[in-house]
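Deliverable D2.4 — example input (C-alpha cells):
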C-alpha cells in the first residue's frame, strides 16, 4: 500500500487535470447530502481528503462551515483558488485538532486510500462531536465503469510502450482491490444509516474514457517523455474501438456512523 508521501505525490501530479477528469456530484446529489447533514444537526464540518474542494465548496455555498485537510499541496492550491479557506496540509491519522472540534468529519471517496480504515476512523471519531460521514460509490451489480474497460486501456498502453522499447512496470497494487476494501469496510462496520443520494445511468465511450488516460489523470505512467507518450497514445487509439459504448450505473451513497 502506498505511504502518505506517495499518495501526496500522486495527487500533486494530477491536481491540474483532476476536476476535468472526475465526475462531480450532481447538484441534486449535493442537495440530498446537505439535507442529510442539516437534519442531523451537522453544520461545522471537517472534510478529510478535501482535494480541490469539489464537495466542500458546494456545501460552503449552502451555508455549512467547512474546514478541509489533505496530503496534497497541489490539490489544496486548487481549492484555495476557488475561494475556500481554512485548509490544512495534514494526514488523516495526524490531524492538528483537539477533541470534539467539529460536528462531524466527512470523507468523500477516501476510504479506499486508507491503509487501515478502522484505525483511522477511531482517530477521526475523537475530533468529531457527533460522528463520521462518508460518501461512497457502490460498484457491484453493474455500477461504475467495468474493470475490463480500464484494464484494456492500461494493457494496450503497456503493449504499445513495449513495442517502442519503453517497457513499463505495472502499477503497485491492484486498484480494483482498493475499491473492494472500501465495500468490505462498509459491510463489516455497519453504518447507522446508508442512504442513496444518486442513482443514475451513465453513457460514455471507450474514446471518452481514453481521454482521461491521455491526460494522465490517474497518475500512470507518472514519468515518461511527452514525445514518447504521444506516440504510444497514437498506437493505443488505433488499436481500440473508440466509439464502443460503455453504459453503467452511478450509485453514490452517504454512510453515517455515530450520528444520532
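Example output (designed residues):
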Amino acid at each position: 500500500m502506498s505511504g502518505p508521501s506517495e499518495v501526496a505525490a500522486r495527487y500533486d501530479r494530477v491536481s491540474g487535470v483532476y476536476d476535468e477528469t472526475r465526475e462531480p456530484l450532481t447538484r441534486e446529489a449535493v442537495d440530498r447530502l446537505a439535507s442529510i447533514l442539516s437534519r442531523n444537526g451537522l453544520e461545522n464540518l471537517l472534510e478529510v481528503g478535501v482535494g480541490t474542494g469539489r464537495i466542500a465548496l458546494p456545501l460552503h455555498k449552502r451555508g455549512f462551515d467547512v474546514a478541509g485537510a489533505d496530503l496534497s499541496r497541489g490539490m489544496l492550491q486548487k481549492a484555495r483558488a476557488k475561494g475556500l479557506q481554512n485548509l490544512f496540509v495534514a494526514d488523516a491519522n495526524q490531524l492538528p485538532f483537539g477533541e470534539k472540534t467539529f460536528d462531524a468529519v466527512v470523507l468523500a471517496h477516501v476510504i479506499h486510500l486508507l491503509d487501515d480504515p478502522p484505525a483511522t476512523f477511531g482517530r477521526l471519531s475523537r475530533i468529531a462531536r457527533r460522528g463520521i460521514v462518508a460518501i461512497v460509490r457502490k460498484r457491484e451489480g453493474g455500477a461504475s465503469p467495468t474493470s475490463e474497460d480500464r484494464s484494456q486501456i492500461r494493457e494496450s498502453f503497456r503493449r504499445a510502450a513495449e513495442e517502442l522499447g519503453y517497457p513499463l512496470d505495472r502499477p503497485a497494487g491492484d486498484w480494483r482491490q482498493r475499491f473492494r476494501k472500501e465495500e468490505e469496510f462498509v459491510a463489516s462496520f455497519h453504518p447507522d444509516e446508508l442512504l442513496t443520494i444518486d442513482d443514475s445511468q451513465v453513457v460514455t465511450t471507450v474514446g471518452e474514457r481514453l481521454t482521461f488516460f491521455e491526460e494522465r489523470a490517474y497518475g500512470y505512467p507518472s514519468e515518461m517523455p511527452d514525445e514518447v507518450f504521444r506516440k504510444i497514445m497514437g498506437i493505443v487509439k488505433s488499436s481500440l474501438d473508440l466509439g464502443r459504448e460503455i453504459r453503467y450505473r452511478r450509485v453514490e451513497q452517504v454512510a453515517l456512523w455515530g450520528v444520532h
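The mean pLDDT is 89.
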